[in-house]
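My main concern about presentation is that the manuscript never shows what a single data entry looks like. An entry of this sort, consisting of the sequence and the corresponding backbone structure tokens, reads as follows:
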Amino acid sequence: MSSQKVKEKSKPTNLLAGATGDWEVIVGMEVHAQVASNAKLFSGASTAFGAEPNSHVSLVDAAMPGMLPVINKECVAQAIRTGLGLKAQINLKSVFDRKNYFYPDLPQGYQISQYKQPVVGEGEVEIDVDGETMKIGIERLHLEQDAGKSLHDQHPDYSYVDLNRSGVALMEIVSKPDLRSSKQAQAYVTKLRSILRYLGTCDGDMEKGNLRADVNVSVRKPGDKLGTRCEIKNVNSIRFIGQAIEYEARRQIDIIEDGGTIDQETRLFDSAKGETRSMRSKEEAHDYRYFPDPDLLPLELTQDYVDSLKSNLPELPDEKRSRFMKTFGLSAYDADVLVAEKALADFFERACLSSRDHGVSATSLIASWVINAVLGRLNKDGITIDQSPISPKQLGDIAGLIGTGEISGKIAKDLFEIVWTEGGDPADIVEKRGMKQVTDTGAIEKAVDEIIAANPEKVEQAKAKPSMLGWFVGQVMKATGGKANPAAVNEILKTKLGI
């Protein structure tokens, strides 16, 4: 559960206006990330998504009498990797507890989780919002098993239970209540998901429920003590997180300004109506009657084991962003876009390597093509970077052809479209289709002379108004089928027109 201890800020930001003045929104997040592993936390049953109901259930998952849990070492390793990626304290000794509550999809009558002694302690996540960089504190990360799923739409008179998710390993990542707006909360979850994907510890697929968030929201007058919080359960999209916070904060402000008080409760977000609604009164830790699980010994790690995991961590988003800016000379914006998804960053780097085969360094050009052309087409076609019809090598080859002057930017756009829709080697396409840029100054001069001779009135206008030069450039490009070198065209025209 989110701690309500918060570092006071010297100047509250992101205030919401109410009838009685400004209000400050306080947000804490509990993000549940499904561990990327083939087997569950305490059994060997599969974690594969989309199977027939109750087909991935072991005797342990179904809580058959006498069945004992056995810890999955890889799930522990994934939690430690995540903690290291969050710059968090790794606790060499942690304890699994029983969190007791009764629900149809929880066959044991309790959930194996961690309470006072989690595997990962305090850490932080750095986010950028509106040009401001801030660090959001991580309270803890603990391992726990997921519950099953109740199905209510299969029969009008009955509910069914699917235990395929029962026992699946989750990492609950609890933030400190350092967030002050819906935008900050969205940036935090986006960054957290990016880190998890870079680490390979969770795929972050919110549509499948592999990453979901409980959002704690309260409001207060700036400088006052913390208000009563409400928890919004299982919000499963970043867009909905923003909408839920906006609605809930405004709801609480309206109640307080009307003379009412906020009840501490658990709420659900109705995405169709864009509003939260009451689910139940909020439980406290003592309601769950936590106690150490007698079937599981304390989890004890060695520092050498933690260090070995740390030594094999991949480059994370913040580190990659800094390297892209320093090594490739990218702007902060371009670097941010490219490192947001590991697959996109990898695509960019591989394209840069291909361009070097042409003897050119075109990192800024390739960054522009990836961000504008590639992402634009991916969004238009509704596919991911992993499904891109154009490969990093093909894009790098196009950039290389631009860099060596074999094609112009305009020709490159046509070439990109051909490669995207038909495939093929860019250099071969340019050669076979006669797409090479005309750099022969004699041929360009001939086209310029013909256009000048045919447009004497335009010539006089251009001499009086140099901005008319663009018209002549367009005519030359048209006459050469867009193949003339634009720089050469400009120079020859300036000389011929005396500009």
